[in-house]
Amino acid sequence: MPDRKSVEVALRDRMPSRLFDHSRQVAKYAAHLAELHGVDPDWIYIAGLYHDLGKTMDVDAMRGAAESERIAFDDMEARSASLLHAAASAALFQKDMKPPDSFVKAVRGHTVGAAPFGPEEQILYVADFAEPGRSYEECESVRRTAERDLHLATLEAVAFKMRFLMLRNKTIHARSLALYNFLLERPGRG
Ligand SMILES: [Fe+2]
Ligand SMILES: [Fe+2]
Q: Which ligand has its closest atom nearest to the C-alpha of 22?
């Protein structure tokens, strides 16, 4: 199990300071949610630190990193740095830290989601959406919900993201819709 501080020290030099600050906020908030919802807080913390590291690469390097770690991506992701960074970050995390698969998946799924979507994935998705540095109004509600119901908080976050895109006539990734449906359809929500 890698030590939180030593990973922070190693990653601080690999990212611009704003991205590092965001990543650390995500890590801290994700670890808090992990304690509440029965997920390993140490691994989710490291996943949080890594989740946007791929943003430091250009699209070609992102593709190369994902391919070399066999992290799959689709055509829509291949064309877009803002989507592809999730696959690249998952590849870097897997290569450096050898984490359990569920945490690689959490980094992989933090941007557009996936179905099924387990607790590790839900925590990182919610933490990225609602970390304390985020100021949009919907964060408050998602944060409140996440204290008691992780599943519902993830549903609120994905629904908000999809509404945001639809109101601007932007494409919605098929996996985001699949995540939304998965969360609605899963029996025994809560
Ligand atoms: Fe991201
Ligand atoms: Fe992020």
A: 2
